[in-house]
Amino acid sequence: MIGFNYEDYDGLGLAELVRKKEVQPIELVEESIKRIDTLNPKINAVINMMYEKARVMTTDEQNGLFAGVPTLLKNISQEMEGEPITAGSKAFLSYRAKTDSEYVRRLRKAGVLILGQTNVPEFALVAYTEPVQYGPTRNPWNLNHTPGGSSGGSAAAVASGMVPFAGANDGGGSIRIPASYCGLFGLKPTRGRTPVGPNLGRSWQGASTEHVITRTVRDSAALLDQLQGHEKAGAFHTPSFEGSFLNAASTPLTRKLRIAYSISSPIGTEVHPECRDAVIKSAKLLETMGHHVEEVDAPVDGYKLVKSYLMMYFGETAATITSLESILGRKATYKDVEPSTWLLGLIGKATSAEEFVLSIREWDKAALQMETFHETYDIYITPTTAFPPAKIGELQPTTSEQFLIRTIGQIGLSRLLKKAGIVDQIARKNLARTPFTQLANLTGQPAMSVPLHLTGEGLPIGVQFMAARGQESLLLKMAGELEQSDHWIDVRQNPLF
């Protein structure tokens, strides 16, 4: 039994105890395992335990900034040699990683001890974590609600105190949305800042980046220092930050900023009053800190961007299903994946190369518009999500919708769906709750969700901050100052922590 409160320390704090020999890595591993074994039956955050490998690693000499600190990987793209990685799908149950991903290599070099993998929706496609294969992950603040997705398992694990931080990635909000719903800090880095290889040079055409979900700003910053840098096959290269992101997180801003904010959905859909209030309250706080704050919408066509995002989404799903042949030893059928996934893949197969290229060009137009926008405004603020966390099962297709999806999937009417405008309906329905986060993915900008609001029901809501490409240090300085304010939500308030 360790002689201190494990949950009172973030990752850097635990590493400092190890360096001072006030605690042994095996003690941290056993404490984390105890918390996983106690809490996981309630929240279903961890779906693959690697306890024995972690225990063996504690006998090695501990090096690196996070030496001896337990953590978890996300069950998609963050591959560990010899371990299964299923992306939340039964289709990948037989797959074993042939090598460590570059992300995992860099984490290991930082000294972390990996205890397992966290739950994700199938192929990380939706903003809630309820895969058929593993069942739903629940929010530690209220077990009836989702922790979001697709990094929902990682967020629930951190928010319940299993580990101080966990692996995550973000292709349309998958770090920021669960961070928002679970009262955590979630930073999506600039495109190309962190590695996605070696098996890929780009993930989701550059929309997706790898990082972590954390309790503290400094852990996120310090891990970004460890993860950033050139990789051989990387399609996008962001110059390494010459300073220290960790130092930036503890360095006060040296000037007052021009900040724009918006509480309007970029696709014209409803925004819940609590989400609007979170931004307005944050804007007032920033004004008291001396910053110039004004209400200004981003200069982009939000609906056109959402459609271009979905075009990529459909194409990537189709490509993933096609690639299953190498895993299954045969062509995939609709029985191999969830009905909604199969339908998305069919729409992707019905999409032309011309449509796909034209949609990607919209990303570049928006990137130019936002870079110009940031010549006037240092930071752009929106709600992270348009609604508080949904209840478990609320966002699943209804029985009749599932029947329709299954029928369409079997007889292959995807082209008719496109002509009938069903794709536009999917765009509005799927993204109405989370319309704010995709912009940063498509433009390549850094963006973060900051825990600054609790609803009347006691559920967290994050506020999103975006900056120009390469400006993570500015966001981290802002986050570091906000973390010291009374508005910052302490995740240790939730019932399961």
Automatic annotation (TrEMBL):
Keywords, alphabetical: Hydrolase
Which residue windows are transmembrane per the record?
Answer: none
The secretion signal range is none
What range(s) does the Amidase domain occupy?
27-476
- Which molecular-function annotations from GO does this UniProt entry contain? hydrolase activity
The protein's matches in Gene3D superfamilies, at most eight in alphabetical order, are given as: Amidase signature (AS) domain
Protein family: Belongs to the amidase family.
Q: What is this protein called?
A: 6-aminohexanoate hydrolase
Name the lineage: Bacteria, Bacillati, Bacillota, Bacilli, Bacillales
